[in-house]
Amino acid sequence: MKIVVAGTGYVGLVTGACLSEVGHSVTCVDIDEKKIQKMKQGISPIYEPGLGELLKKNNDNGKLNFTTDYKNAYKDADLVFIGVGTPEREDGSANLDYVFNVCKQISDNIEKDCLVVVKSTVPIGTNDKVEEFLRENLKNNDIHVEVASNPEFLAQGTAVIDTLYAKRIVIGVESEKAENIMKEIYKPYNQPIVVTNRRSAEMIKYASNDFLALKISFINEIANFCEMVGADIEDVAKGMSFDPRIGDKFLKAGIGYGGSCFPKDTKALHWLANDNGYELKTIKATIEVNQNQKYKLFRAAKQRVGSLKGLKVAVLGLTFKPGTDDLREAPSIPNVRRLLDEGAEVVAYDPVGEDNFKRIYPNIKYVETPEETLEGAHMAFIFTEWDEIKKISPTQYIELMNNPILFDGRNCYKINDMRNFGIDYYSVGRKAVLNLKNKSNKEVAATIM
Ligand code: UGA
């Protein structure tokens, strides 16, 4: 079967590469010729461990092809996977323009029966509309086109492994024929397959992402409350995690979730429910808690020092999570904005996110190592828990900083380790460690010696 994948972002490219890895013949379509040339050489346009190797290997052995010539690609495709973006509109709803642009190209060009598989995250009911659109716009009415929903569950940074060793494959179909084709395609993966109708498959995607986002907002609220009553969120989460009904995943408190999915998908589902006359109260709360959580440590810093004007602030970590160069909805972005608005001098470090951050903030100082960030700083913020950042020892903060006050938005350190050093340490869901606060400058200097 000839498989064509539309879109070479996270979803499209990883889908195409992994389908070719298990033996299928795949053509990935993109409009950008330069990007196509790079992918042919095994250079991934996105930072994703293992993806470059898959591109190179399967391009070399002829299983994976890249083209800008969508007309020829769609003409004789048996299956077209749509993996283009569905960004957020201003009102929170999903923008489906890219999906329907691809549909138009498909209906204009296909010359044989085709199964169109929607991998993009789309509002419930979209697959029905896609099928209707394709059928209405077909140039040749003798052709049978059908649509299947096949949501994606990969996470950035682990996308290849998440796909090749997925926990489940969800297939939403309206006919036995489509079900059989999809099962055949996924046979080599040897993973559990859940077959539903298309609307349920679309809902499974949103419900899964929104549940994970809700879990994070829940643990963040409990963390905030822990600080008030003298409990420790790390211990609380650990204690909860042994209950298999709760589990140990997505219970890490911090300064909120970011990325291209949770923020967008919570708002999209909330919007869609509202549009249907129903208020999803848990999702509304999830969004509100996350919005507030982002600035938690900025507020603590303001409260601690009053004015940030003229202070040198070290920013450690820029991406929305480790393992990616993606900055979408990263808590670092609005926090740096606030720091700059307050008149702080920001010095930033991130092992891979620097170039992208420079496009948003070209005028702040960027350095190559975490240590350089800390030199002479009056306070430091951790926004992403990169290994390079977790490796900084408490003594390094004392040795390098002008004033060792650390605001750790990802709870990178054990609280007891921080108690034994002359450092002030604010984290999430744990009582602040204040070694310096009530000491004179002389005493502070003595702890630094
Ligand atoms: C998420 C889902 O995990 C994937 O299953 C899904 O396929 C994907 O969205 C998508 O819809 O495409 P992703 O956005 O790549 O994947 O990243 P996650 O690892 O889920 O992290 C999202 C955010 O939650 C990050 O900012 C992370 O720091 C935060 N997070 C995660 C926490 O604050 N606490 C946790 O315990 C876990």
Q: What does this protein structure show overall?
A:
The protein is α/β, with parallel strands linked by helices. The chain folds into 3 domains: 3-196, Rossmann fold (3-Layer(aba) Sandwich), CATH 3.40.50.720; 204-293, N-(1-d-carboxylethyl)-l-norvaline Dehydrogenase, domain 2; 296-446, Rossmann fold (3-Layer(aba) Sandwich), CATH 3.40.50. 45% of the residues lie in helices and 14% in strands. It is built from 20 helices and 15 strands. It has helices at residues 10-21, 33-40, 51-60, 70-75, 97-109, 126-137, 159-164, 176-186, 198-229, 233-241, 262-275, 281-293, 296-305, 332-341, 354-360, 370-374, 387-390, 394-400, 415-419, 441-448; strands spanning 2-6, 25-29, 64-67, 79-82, 114-118, 145-149, 169-172, 193-196, 312-316, 345-349, 365-366, 379-382, 405-408, 424-426, 433-434. The strands form 3 sheets. A 7-stranded mixed sheet has the order 11-10-9-12-13-14-15. The protein has a 6-stranded parallel sheet with strand order 3-2-1-4-5-6, with helices on both faces. The chain is elongated, with a radius of gyration of 25 Å. Bound molecules: uridine-5'-diphosphate-glucuronic acid. Uridine-5'-diphosphate-glucuronic acid is lined by residues 121, 152-156, 209, 212, 216, 250-252, 254, 257-259, 261-262, 320-321.
TL;DR?
The chain has 449 residues and is of the alpha/beta class.
Biggest sheet, in brief?
7 strands, mixed
CATH architecture of the largest domain: 3-Layer(aba) Sandwich
Strands, total number: 15
From the alpha carbons, calculate the radius of gyration and give it in angstroms.
25 Å
Q: Which kinds of small molecule does this entry bind, naming each only once? A: uridine-5'-diphosphate-glucuronic acid
> Regions with pLDDT < 50 over 5+ consecutive residues?
444-449
Which structural class best describes the helix and strand composition?
A: alpha/beta
- What is the CATH T-level topology of the largest domain? Rossmann fold
Strand order of the largest sheet: 11-10-9-12-13-14-15
Q: How many separate helices?
A: 20
Please give the share of residues in helix: 40-55%
What's the CATH first level of the largest domain?
Answer: Alpha Beta
Instruction: Measure the end-to-end span.
Output: 70 Å
